[in-house]
Amino acid sequence: MTVVFDRPKALLDVPTHYCPGCTHGVIHRLVAEVIDELGILDKTIGVAPVGCSVLAYDYFACDMYEAAHGRAPAVATGIKRAVPDSVVFTYQGDGDLAAIGTAEIVHAAARGEKITTIFVNNAIYGMTGGQMAPTTLPGQVTETSPYGRDVKTAGYPIRVSEMISTLDGAVYVERVSVDSVPNIIKAKKAIKKAFEIQLQGLGFSLVEVLSICPTNWGLSPNESVKWLRDNMIPYYPLGVKKDATTGEVK
Amino acid sequence: MADKVLMKGNEAIGEAAIHAGCQCFFGYPITPQTEVAAYMSRRMPKVGRVFLQAESEVAAINMVYGAAGAGVRVMTSSSSPGISLKAEGISYIAGAELPCVIINIVRGGPGLGGIQPAQSDYFQATKGGGHGDYRLVVFAPASVQEMVDLVQDAFDVADKYRNPVMVMGDGMLGQMMEPVEFKERPKKELPEKTWAANGLKGREKHNIINSLFLKPEELEAHNNKLQEKYREIEKNEVRYELYNCDEEMDLVIVSYGTLSRICKNAIKMLKKEGINVGLIRPITLWPYPVEAFDKVIDKTKNGFISVEMSCGQMLEDVQLAVNGRKPVHFYGRSGGMVPTPAEIANKIKGIVGGAK
Ligand SMILES: Cc1ncc(C[n+]2csc(CCOP(=O)(O)OP(=O)(O)O)c2C)c(N)n1
Ligand code: SF4
Ligand SMILES: [Mg+2]
User: Fold this and answer.
1) What ipTM score was computed for the predicted complex, to two decimals?
2) pTM greater than 0.90
3) CATH number for region B240-352
4) Pocket test for ligand 1, best of A19, A24, A27, A69 (most atoms within 8 A of CB)
5) For B175-193, what is the mean pLDDT?
6) Is the dihedral of CA B42, B44, B50, B56 positive or negative?
């Protein structure tokens, strides 16, 4: 019998706490498959954020840290500088990375820290029950934007990938989505490339993954996928934003 | 014996850390401790180690969390407003039980305060600073030599107990130059860092650096374990100096850091006038040297006086240690004002009633 589908070694055989239909699980799996394929489980160290993926340290089989809210890139910097031959990744939500942790991510990228960031953008604060995030779309209703995000008072969403791409220390930046099988395959390719950039010692890499939060969007998983496609992708265009290995900057 | 060299306090801190095997230093400029970072930026690359100027104190302390969790010796340095920013990270480091050394060269507060010497971060250092039930070991050296010795001890104590250690001085100590010696130190037996998250490298189970315990029973058990450790530290690590405490005394001064040296001068002045005053100098601010009070309490006529460059922060610990057995007085200046020996002597004469 040939095994066609199995749990990646980099993921532990434990139940996760994610809501049914949440794509955090899909993204975990992609990261784990990449770690397996690159054969780097033994030297990979992951940093979990504060957010729905706070317990990621219990799911990944590599050594793990739990960082304070937004501080994962600084923690990862400390790890990588202390153990330069390790592979260090952060896994962060949009509240974590683009609000409270904006300084840490910008400066880790600017320094060209040889780490990889998986940035999960679901346009909301999932863990705390669905408040407005810096990535919440104009007009989007959340617990703290009950009349829809009003850009006159709450300002505009941040396009993190585009912003990080402007920094010379960032070597590879791509935005992907996990709303469909073809996009999931592309997302995995991007994550693999981001880890390879680190393995080659080239600098900072970031993959922004558009992700769904059925629970706090108040939609079914299917409706959520459609909402992501119709609303998020137009505001957050997919694709490589920067690839310094080819000189590509969009 | 090693040679004596003339060094500025802040630079001596850096060199002491290098002697102690500090692998990584993460800092951010702030007066009056910037020379620590400047010294490390010169020296660390030369000895093949890591210096990094962070984007903020918040980032610096989280870099410390990262490096400490990976099992290397790591230090950061700052002054009062910067330590406030580090408070979040210090709480996480204490919660995750990571060893590291934090230097605070205290300046006057609150707020942006001033840049002159002060001791007004006593509460912050000894009573928390960050959130949660945690303790820092706090060393308070009084000379550059003692700074050199205590910084090195701090790394050992941190590793021994898996606990952050703070070394607290003031701008005077940071800026003054004194001859120092980097003594040969006997190798300490310290526990192996089997908990470090530095890559599996063949290890079967992953290591996790974490301070999150969602189940109340687990968090309480964790807190109880921390408390047990703190009791152990209280038993083993208390340090203090007793000065002129052998005979009957009119009063006992309690004072730490550079200010304790000024107090010693006041004691000498008073002696000439026939007033005999002793000194308890806490070297560890936490654990607080309560036993020192028990040793002198029967020999002091007028009790104790807490002399501080703050508005009565250590006074509370003095009162707790004395526990109503004798009167407790207070003299303090703040904002960067440094008391003179004559000022302190006058205050004491007011209490003990002039020349005998
Ligand atoms: C200093 C601090 N502030 C606030 C919180 C509360 N908090 C926990 S998770 C979270 C938001 C996380 O949202 P995001 O990063 O978007 O992750 P998601 O849950 O959506 O995956 C907040 C504000 C905290 N834990 N720490
Ligand atoms: S709250 Fe949203 S992001 Fe969090 S697990 Fe549930 S669906 Fe996923
Ligand atoms: Mg989110």
Assistant:
1) 0.97
2) yes
3) 3.40.50.920
4) A69
5) 94
6) negative
